[in-house]
Amino acid sequence: MQQQQSIHAVFDKQSNQMKYEYRLSLSASIDVVRLLLNQGLSFRDHDESESSLNIGNFLEVLSRYRDRCEKIKPFVLQNAPKNNKMTSPDIQKNIMTACKIETIKAIIKDLNGDYFSLLVDESFDVSRKEQMAIVLRYVDRKGFVVEAFIGLVHVPDTSVLSLKKVIVNILAHHSLSLSFLRGQCYDGASNMQGDINGLKVLIEQESRSACSIHCFARQLQLTLVAVSKKCAQVGELVLLVSNILNVLGAAFKHMDELRESLKKRLQEALDIGELEKGKGLNQELGLVRAGDTRWGSHYKSFGNFILLFDSIIDVLDTLAEDASILDERAKATGYLRSCQTFEVAFMLYFMKDILGITMILIYRFRKRSKILLMP
Where in the numbering of this chain does the DUF4371 domain appear (predicted)? Predict the structure, then answer.
């Protein structure tokens, strides 16, 4: 190939047979990439050598595809020319990028220049890099509400101006304007929802119609948590339950002991007729960690703690007597003593009942219907 020649000129000189083989090889790789993307699977593995027992999802699926399709068998993997295998990491990445571009094109075409809303969230990835996910919400031409993910962008910092710049650049890249923005939805972070210098305020200054309504269920959850923590007894209960869950979850052995105790007590209850047998009954329960921003998590945490209370006491009692580390024995003894007081038992049931009432309202908020009071 001469340096001054374009790739198109070189390709035109190839025989029709070579072009046919190239397209088959490329089509096979594209089919595998689309399958893996659709299923949300990883592409590569640590060791992709021929001696490896697992050469990664891409090569494994392509290998099975080759074995079952006689049409592509002579032109892929080992049977393909060394410079035309279409399996290198760069080729895989290029195909993925092409799929992303075509998918977003289809989304923008479906939007058809109409009004839209933005759903934005930020979080760290496993390498501790801050990333921002952007989703478009709109009504398509058939009248259906569509939520389409259009990008995951690394942000150098989480300042309001930086986040706004990223959003504006992404919208501009897809020929979208803030003037067509009719809604904003963010998490509860101050840089997002702040009423003075939050991201929503900056965007509303440019697009007055871009309303921002915080999730009602989340608002109720945050309000309940904030008000509850004003009560010392509730704060002590939340701390006690959290500490006990940390102790039990610190080792697989403790969780196994909890399951064995629960299994034994369930069998005893079934034997004396306190519980009924049947499909879907007496399912295994787990300990639920409460989160201030996860709606309903405190209700589930307290509810499961009550149902597993006897088994939790059994495990704490075992730890208080048999734990090899003095610190573990001391903690277990203290938690065991606190759990078996009237005050803790009363507060557990009291909070479960109070939160149970609010859960009805939270579930109403989560429904699409705006009718809150009808059964």
Answer: 1-198
